[in-house]
């Protein structure tokens, strides 16, 4: 029996690094702090949950295999929701939103990477909270009742949100330190040789060129509009405000199903 269940929600059109980055870190939760200490969670288990057990295709065409369905996933101690262009359609999917809400109700940690934050928001989990997401989408956070805090990782209570894509790796280390201690996090960091030294210091709007910013804003425009439209539909008359969540009793029309994959 697992002594700590980590679960990732996957859906068509996710950005694989939003998922696989923190997966690589969190799946090593059973690592001990040293040769002379026992693991705090020797039976920790990582689950990859989807609507079915069929392969799920990422926004760049990589096929990902779920390990369980929403129906048979065990209660999770930590739930993590990645982002990607598929968030637009997932916002309109009652089964996905209900699964996130149901699992979050009993989880110790509720987390999202990049624009996966909007799925937490649609489940009513960001109302009145501070949060972050990919830099190109922070202006949409008020649509789910959240206020943007400029940080790579934001914690508000038991809810963790992170910035775009690679920020999910950093958030995962923060979670490991919280759960198992800094020594375990440092051991895992060494094990995967996480010592980033990018050739360019241009990975944040504060550091990027105007040309790069203009290009990325343009390339994220379709997904940005799709998310805004989907959230607006959830707030329309006859439905709950997105900050209050989407219930399985509602009829929700899909929006923006042809949104371009965000360049996140």
Question: Could you name the ranges where pLDDT drops below 50 across 5 or more consecutive residues?
Answer: 240-244, 246-260
Question: The biggest beta sheet, please?
Answer: 7 strands, mixed
Query: Structural class, please?
Result: alpha/beta
What Rg is obtained from the alpha carbons, in whole angstroms?
A: 18 Å
Termini separation: 37 Å
* Overall pLDDT score: 91
User: In total, how many beta strands?
Assistant: 11
Beta strand %: 5-15%
User: What is the spatial order of strands in the main beta sheet?
Assistant: 5-2-1-6-7-11-10
Percent of residues in helices comes to: 25-40%
**SSE order, one letter for each helix or strand:** EHEEEEEHHEHEEEEHHHH
